[in-house]
Predict the structure.
Amino acid sequence: MAKKYLIGITGASGAIYALTLVKALKERGIPFEIIVTEAGKIVIEQELELSWKDLANYAERVYEEREIWAPPASGSASYEGLIIIPCSMGTLAGIASGQAKNLLLRAADVMLKERRSLVLVVRETPLNLIHLQNMLAVTQAGGVIFPAMPGFYHKPKSLEELVEGLVLRLLQFLNLSENSKAWKGLS
Ligand SMILES: Cc1cc2nc3c(=O)[nH]c(=O)nc-3n(C[C@H](O)[C@H](O)[C@H](O)COP(=O)(O)O)c2cc1C
């Protein structure tokens, strides 16, 4: 059975990271479902000038945050992991404090309790003490903080290439793809 991932999209800036990731997963034939928060829908539409449903169309299934009855709310649903991209400080805080009060927070809680993969592509600047403490708490609970901090060593020539660099690094981290933009050393 192919590994199926959950992709969470929140209201942090950087909806382009989510769009680039879902396209990359689709191209590679990796099955996934999406959970989008209400703020996530707003930021997708504001930053990408797309309907959130256009982005959601890449996924096998899409859930809204209120759908607490859906499969991602249960550890018995066999998702490989959850990648939240971009991840807001609000969602980070909800995970760090175990609130589980919407479908995305509950799905993240499930990943941690089931010892499955939880990766948060967090985006905020600057960071306050609460953000940093929440990142520490999630890391101690077994999650991975994977900041939306693209590298520049592959010399991106466009915004798309910059974002692709981060998404390839993420797929490489999850053992889902080779990273064609990996550092090859100085020639
Ligand atoms: C255009 C826009 C950009 C935002 N960027 C960020 C951001 O980069 N990081 C962040 O933590 N919150 C950001 N926010 C605020 C979140 O959307 C807000 O805290 C929201 O309640 C998060 O809810 P969610 O985690 O359920 O998606 C932004 C909001 C808007 C409208």
